[in-house]
Amino acid sequence: MFSLKELIQSIDHTLLKPDATQKDFFHLCCEAKELGLKAVCVLPYVVPFCVQQLQASSVVVATVVGFPLGANSWGIKALEAQRAFTDGAAEVDMVLNIGALKDRRISDVFTEIEEVVKVAHTFSGKVVKVIIETALLTAEEKRIACELAVKAGADFVKTSTGFNCGGATVDDVRLMVETVGEKAKVKAAGGIRTWAQAEKLLLAGASRLGTSSGKNIVTQYLEQYQKDKN
C-alpha cells in the first residue's frame, strides 16, 4: 500500500469548471493546504490569486494551455505558457493538437510541444505536462503522442482533460509508462473519484493524479488504512 505522503504528493487538486468562482478557488486552495497536496490545477486567469493563497505553503500552482480542445495555434500556446509562468504557475498542462496528430502532421505536433517546453526552460524549475486525450486516440496514436512529447522535452504525459468522453484507465497508463520509460512521467486524469481507482492507477505507474476529488480520495485512503490496521 502506498504511504499517505506518497498519495498526497501525487494529487493535483483540480478545478477547471467554466462557472467556478473565486470563492470556489479559495476553497480549493484551502483544501490543498490542509491536506498537503502536491498542486492545485486551475484556470489561467486565477493563477495569480491561487499563487497568493498558497504562498506560505508547499502546494504549487498548475494551469492549462490550449484547453480543452488543443486546437490553438502553437504560437498562442507558447504565449499562454509564458503568461502562466510569469503569473507564478509552476506547471502547465497543455493539450496537444488532436486533429493534427490524427492527420499525422507530426512536425506540427512536435513543434507546438517543443515551443512550450522552450518557454518553460526560460524560467527555473517549471514543468510541462502534455495532455494526449487518450479516449480519442488509437493505441498507435497514443504511442506516437507520448514519443513526440518525450522527444520535445516534456516532463509528463497526461491521459485526459476530463472534458471529453472517457477518462483515465489502467490500460492507458500502462501503455504510456511503457512508451515513455524513464524519459518522462505519467499523469492520470479524468474520472478519478475514489481511492480504489487512484490506487490502481498508481500501481499501473502513474506519478500524478489529476482529480477534483482529492479530499474524498485521501479520506477513503485513511479509512482503508484504519480497517487494515485493525
What key attributes describe this structure?
eight-stranded parallel beta barrel; TIM Barrel; alpha/beta; 230 residues; single chain
Give me the secondary-structure topology.
Blueprint: H1 4-8, E1 11-15, H2 22-35, E2 39-42, H3 47-53, E3 60-65, H4 74-86, E4 91-95, H5 98-102, H6 106-121, E5 127-131, H7 139-152, E6 156-158, H8 170-180, E7 185-189, H9 195-203, E8 208-211, H10 214-229
Helix pairs in contact: 4-6, 6-7, 7-8
Commentary on this structure:
This protein has helices spanning 4-8, 22-35, 47-53, 74-86, 98-102, 106-121, 139-152, 170-180, 195-203, 214-229; strands at 11-15, 39-42, 60-65, 91-95, 127-131, 156-158, 185-189, 208-211. α6 (106-121) packs parallel to α7 (139-152). The mean pLDDT is 97. The protein has a single domain (4-229), classed as TIM Barrel (Alpha-Beta Barrel), CATH 3.20.20.70. α8 links the parallel β6 and β7. Helix content is 48%, strand content 16%. It is built from ten helices and eight strands.
Number of strands: 8
Overall 3D geometry?
A: globular
Spatial order of the strands forming the largest sheet: 1-2-3-4-5-6-7-8
Percent helix: 40-55%
Largest sheet properties: 8 strands, parallel, barrel
Question: What's the architecture, going by CATH?
Answer: Alpha-Beta Barrel
Runs with pLDDT <50, length 5+? Answer: none
CATH superfamily: Aldolase class I
State the name of the first-level CATH class: Alpha Beta
Structural class: alpha/beta
Distance between the termini: 15 Å
CATH topology: TIM Barrel
Global mean pLDDT: 97
Number of helices: 10
User: Helix and strand succession?
Assistant: HEHEHEHEHHEHEHEHEH
Number of domains: 1
Please give the radius of gyration in angstroms: 17 Å
- Portion in strands: 15-25%
